Amino acid sequence: MSIWRIPLADIDLGEEEKAAVTAVLERRWLTMGEETQQFEQEFADFVGATYAYAVSNCTVALHLACLALDLGPGDEVLVPSLTFVATAAAVRYVGATPRFVEITSEDDLTISPQALVDRITPRTRAIIVMHYGGYMCDMPSILEIARKNNLFVIEDAAHAPGASLNGQKAGVWGDVGCFSFFSNKNLSTGEGGMITTHRQDIAEKIRILRSHGMTALTWDRHQGHAWSYDVVTLGYNYRLDELRSTIGRVQLRKLEANNRRREALVDYYRQRLRKEVPEVSIPFSEHPGRSAYHLMPALLPLGVSRVEFMEAMKRRGIQTSVHYPPVHKFSAYQGIALFHGGGLPLTESVAQREVTLPLYPMLTETQVDEVVLAVREALLEIQPV
Ligand SMILES: *Cc1c(COP(=O)(O)O)cnc(C)c1O
């Protein structure tokens, strides 16, 4: 039982997922089989990617992306700081240096194209963008910058399965797209992820790196296609199993409808918050493209204590969260040569004021009303006039 009356997130899981898992168990083939292959094909078709590989999680997808693009020591990779730490950690796994880049504005929390240009050095090799909350980064501008400066583009699309801009989905704009199926994401399998690309050379590297650097896989041997193999590179075991893949296939079929439901809830939230608490600002007010509406971020008025606000929400049984503490402020990221000088004032100011409100497909309009009422009461309670 949850301690929350209204939790931050919840999963749309039911009989279909149970039946799918049971069917896989009864087939007695639990890894790298038909379910995973079909999940990959269906996901590739859904986002419009030429290649898609299921992996253990998005963190390893990001690692594989850096490996497949041959990033390494001496290379700099431009990343947002207003993201989950894995975006930057992947750069460090391969010995390259993350350089943190400012967000666009208080309304657009995605990486700023102008700030990207300002941080390019002769060592810069790649950009990792993150579609914050499911809202697309300015991909046309970012691709243009990448093309001019000969940089790779990796999309951390953990928040954005199904999001699109100019009719093109997240994860297929850059060289590689990385998705997460962690339990609080729009499509969840517990742990899990997907890596997409349109480049055949990168696809081949990813396929081999994902499974120990081996040329022939267990499934091929099971099918009688191969009995021997070579190991051609230092590889990893970053695979996804059949149980998670079959859950992923069911979840993928629900994704579009669930994203539309999230959209309706966000529209309703915006309308209600604007009316009841106009001093709270809601980012992405006029964002181009179609969001996957992963998060419902709000910015508290300047001077309001976020800790007290979150405590007041908790007393009302409503779970809130923060997306994100900026990565460049973490202990493990101190002392890395991150800046040419100066900090990230916009990122830091937004990160201090941001609160994420509950959002998931099964949330009701009545519950949104309750959350909005609680926001109003909480603000009154902690700043008595
Ligand atoms: C969740 C998340 C990840 C990591 O995903 P895992 O599947 O948990 O490894 C990476 N980046 C962002 C932006 C995320 O939200």
If you had to describe this structure to a student in words, what would you say it looks like?
With 385 residues, the chain is α/β, with parallel strands linked by helices. It folds into two domains: 15-251, Aspartate Aminotransferase, domain 2, CATH 3.40.640; 255-382, Aspartate Aminotransferase, domain 1 (Alpha-Beta Complex), CATH 3.90.1150.10. It contains twelve helices and eleven strands. It has helices at 15-27, 34-47, 58-68, 86-93, 113-119, 139-149, 200-210, 218-222, 242-276, 306-315, 345-353, 365-382, and strands at 51-55, 76-80, 97-101, 124-130, 152-156, 164-165, 168-169, 176-180, 193-197, 296-299, 354-357. The strands form three sheets. Strands 1-9-8-5-4-2-3 form a seven-stranded mixed β-sheet, with helices on both faces. The mean pLDDT is 95. The site of pyridoxal-5'-phosphate (PLP) has 14 residues, from α3 and α4.
Attribute tags:
single chain; 385 residues; alpha/beta; Aspartate Aminotransferase, domain 2; Aspartate Aminotransferase, domain 1; two-stranded antiparallel sheet; 12 helices; binds pyridoxal-5'-phosphate; PyrdxlP-dep_Trfase_small
Write the layout of secondary structure elements.
Blueprint: H1 15-27, H2 34-47, E1 51-55, H3 58-68, E2 76-80, H4 86-93, E3 97-101, H5 113-119, E4 124-130, H6 139-149, E5 152-156, E6 164-165, E7 168-169, E8 176-180, E9 193-197, H7 200-210, H8 218-222, H9 242-276, E10 296-299, H10 306-315, H11 345-353, E11 354-357, H12 365-382
Parallel strand pairs: 2-3, 2-4, 4-5, 5-8
Antiparallel strand pairs: 1-9, 6-7, 8-9, 10-11
Helix pairs in contact: 1-9, 2-9, 3-4, 3-7, 9-12, 10-12
The structure holds pyridoxal-5'-phosphate.
